[in-house]
Amino acid sequence: MKTRYSSLVGIKKDAMQKSERLLQEQNHLLQKAQKAHADALEALEEIQTPQGGKISDLLASRGLFDAQRVIVQKNQEWVSYAHSQVQQAKEALKKAMIEYEKFNYLELEEMKKILQEQKIQEAKNLDEIALLTHTRKMAKNSLL
Asked: CATH code at 90?
């Protein structure tokens, strides 16, 4: 049954589904960021410090440590950013769900109102038919 809110409900439902998809995408990106961060930490732990040898080996190892620490820092920032994006997507989804539920409720109330009006009209029609039938019976009985 179509009401004046039907098209709005459809639009709000589409917006809600779009927000759900966005949240799923942001969760996926957060998982990728967390995995990259964990991998970077693991790679940092695997770097061996030379125990002896040339100073150039020690400097190369130190440069490798510094580069890996920068990667870990960048991945940590990525995780923080992805986490904030997930939170924003959750808020957007929450708002979209509230809007959808609001218009869905209004549509259901409108349907109830229409159905009630139809029941009243049907009752009036039945009363009118009963009155006409009764009038015809009375007219037939008076003619006899």
From this structure: 1.10.287.1700
